[in-house]
Design a protein that fits this description.
The model is unreliable at about 130-138 (pLDDT under 50). Strand 5 and strand 6 form a beta hairpin. It contains four helices and six strands, in the order H-E-H-H-E-H-E-E-E-E. The chain has a two-stranded parallel sheet with strand order 1-2. It has about 140 residues and is an alpha+beta fold. It folds into two domains: about 1-40; about 45-135, Arc Repressor Mutant, subunit A (Orthogonal Bundle), CATH 1.10.10.
């Protein structure tokens, strides 16, 4: 029975290592794509996401795409640039804050996620002297 547990632990460790490597590779690819887009014309080659076409819906689409990984304003700007679009970082930041206030998304202190992808990433209240003084990720 202990051999099965040991084998399970080995498999889980290997899986976790591969997931970490995959995440690192994903970040490297994003960095290379960003570098390519900057060399290939920088922001001059980026098409702005217009108000008419909907920055709001564009950001919601990005949130759906990233799922449980989450999104912040900088990551949204980088993802848009990789797709050949330009979004204003301040506008994205404002939108994310508004979505959070409306309850559309949740924020864990570093990343915003759609509520459907936020399970287990909620910020937990920290109490001192009977009062909630700050939030921390559980």
């Amino acid at each position: 029975m202990s051999t099965a547990r040991e084998n399970m632990k080995i498999l889980i460790d290997q899986r976790d290592k591969l997931l970490a490597e995959m995440e690192a590779m994903k970040h490297k690819i994003e960095g290379l794509n960003l570098a390519i887009s900057l060399i290939d014309g920088g922001e001059a080659g980026l098409k702005p996401v217009s108000r008419r076409s909907g920055v709001k819906s564009y950001i919601l689409d990005l949130l759906k795409e990233v799922g449980a990984d989450g999104l912040n304003a900088q990551k949204a700007v980088e993802m848009a640039a990789q797709r050949g679009h330009k979004v204003d970082r301040a506008s994205v930041s404002s939108l994310l804050s508004r979505f959070k206030q409306e309850g559309t998304i949740a924020y864990d202190g570093t990343m915003y996620r759609l509520k459907e992808f936020n399970q287990g990433n909620e910020a937990a209240p920290v109490e001192e002297g009977g009062q909630v003084v700050k939030m921390r990720v559980a």
